[in-house]
Each structure stands twice: as C-alpha cells, then as structure tokens.
C-alpha cells in the first residue's frame, strides 16, 4: 500500500535496485536521487500509477534504464539520469501528462517523442552529436506552455556551433533559458523568447561581446555567464540597456580584461 518512497543516497549491493520494487504497485512518488544504482529492473513497468519519478542517480558510472517508462502514463515529473549506457533506448512519446522533464537525451530518445508532451513547463535537453537540430526545433515548437528550457551539451557537440539554428521566439511563455551549447556569438535579440526573464550561459565560447544584444531584451531580470561563456577580452554595458536587470553574474571568465559600464546602464 506504499505511496511514497525516497531512496536518495542509498547504496545498493552490486548497483542493482531490487526487482521487488515492481510489487509496490500503488507508488505515486519514487526518488532515487544520488542513489548508488547502475541498473534498474524491468519490473518497474508495474509502477503505472507513478506521478513523480526521480532517477538522477549517482553519476560515477552510466546507468542502464530498461524501456519501461512508456507505461507510466500518469507521470507528471520525470528526472532521467545524466549518464545512461549505450544500450539504453527509451520511448517516451506516451507520457503526455508530463509537466517536468529533465535529462532528456537525443542519444537515448527520439526527439519526436517531445511532440505530444504539450503540458511540459520545464524541459532539460542534452544534445548528442547525432542530434538533428532542425528536427529538435520543430518538436519543441509544439511545447507552447514551456516556462523553463535548458540546452545542455555532450563533449562531442561542444565542437559544433549551433548559433545559426537557434530560434526560440515562438515560446511566448518561456521565462527561463539555460544554454550550454557552443556559439561564437549571441543570437539576435529577435531570436530570443519575447518575455525572457532569466538567462544562464555556460561553456558557450562566445567571441563577440553579447551585451549589445542582451541589453535590448526588455524583460531580463537576471543574466549569468560562467565557465568561458564569453572568451573575449572586452565587455560594454551601454546607457539605457537592461531596464529591469536585478542580477548580473560574471564568473570564471578568465579572458575578460575590460568591463565598461556606461552611466545610465
């Protein structure tokens, strides 16, 4: 009769979650955050009433996730592992009730699975080298209720400049955007969501000063650059820019030598 089970930080013998987990058929909430698990049992397909599933396990080694999530059609919240083994192939297209999805990888799932997840409000996508960015963009276009979007990179995709394919202006409800993809310069302001409030840029390798573009985004309240988001030496915030900005974080930008803040910026 158990409804809620939190196994965070539990270390399992041999890295295997016991198959008896499948007997807890009334579970609504299962959390395995940072648990010592490298293999999930196929009996998890019996957990058809789950609303919340956090599989963001210990990241020491890749985890094998059997293709059983497709049967958990009641799920509202799903957090997938950041590292999954090469054998993991997930079908998620039937999870139409999802509102929160993190760890979605184009290496382990089809981007077209996103097409039907129209209730999504939070999405974190990990791009693989084989990702077709055009297909991903068209799938995301249907997610009109998105409020927060994270684009993460794998080591292979970090070599690819996605700048030319970046257009998210159709996300009218998007408030938060995190970009961890390579781009030599920031996209034009018209390519950003019109009501963007929070922007986090990491590992982008931008060579051109992004401030002349970002300061024109009228609703921005927080901007964060970190870990070589910007690799240029000079940054200028001009008069009248950033009319609503409350938070600006510039950290781990080792190439930055000069930052000019004009009066009235």
UniProtKB/TrEMBL annotation:
Keyword Repeat carried by entry: yes
UniProt cross-references to InterPro entries, sorted A to Z: LRR_dom_sf, LRR_R13L4/SHOC2-like
Domain Disease resistance R13L4/SHOC-2-like LRR as annotated: residue spans: 1-251
Keywords annotated in UniProt: Repeat
Transmembrane is among the record's keywords: no
Domain of life: Eukaryota
Protein's name according to its UniProt entry: Disease resistance protein Rpp8-like protein
């Amino acid at each position: 009769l158990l409804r809620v089970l939190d196994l965070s930080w539990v270390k399992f013998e041999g890295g295997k979650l016991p198959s008896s987990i499948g007997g807890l058929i009334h579970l609504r909430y299962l959390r395995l955050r940072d648990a010592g698990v490298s293999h999930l049992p196929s009996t998890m397909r019996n957990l058809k009433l789950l609303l919340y599933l956090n599989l963001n396990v210990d990241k020491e080694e890749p985890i094998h996730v059997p293709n059983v999530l497709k049967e958990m059609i009641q799920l509202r919240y799903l957090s997938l592992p950041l590292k999954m083994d090469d054998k993991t192939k997930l079908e998620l297209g039937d999870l139409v009730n999802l509102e929160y999805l993190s760890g979605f990888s184009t290496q382990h799932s089809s981007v077209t699975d996103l097409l039907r997840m129209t209730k999504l409000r939070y999405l974190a996508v990990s791009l693989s080298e084989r990702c077709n960015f055009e297909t991903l963009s068209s799938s995301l276009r249907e997610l009109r209720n998105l409020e927060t979007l994270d684009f993460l990179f794998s080591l292979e995709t970090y070599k690819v400049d996605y700048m030319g394919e970046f257009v998210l202006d159709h996300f009218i409800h998007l408030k938060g955007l995190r970009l961890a993809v390579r781009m030599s310069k920031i996209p034009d302001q018209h390519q950003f969501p019109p009501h963007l409030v929070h922007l986090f840029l990491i590992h982008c390798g931008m060579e051109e000063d992004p401030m002349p573009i970002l300061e024109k985004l009228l609703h921005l309240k927080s901007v964060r650059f970190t870990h070589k988001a910007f690799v240029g030496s000079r940054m200028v915030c001009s008069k009248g820019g950033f009319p609503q900005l409350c938070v600006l974080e510039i950290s781990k930008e080792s190439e930055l030598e000069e930052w000019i803040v004009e009066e009235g910026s």
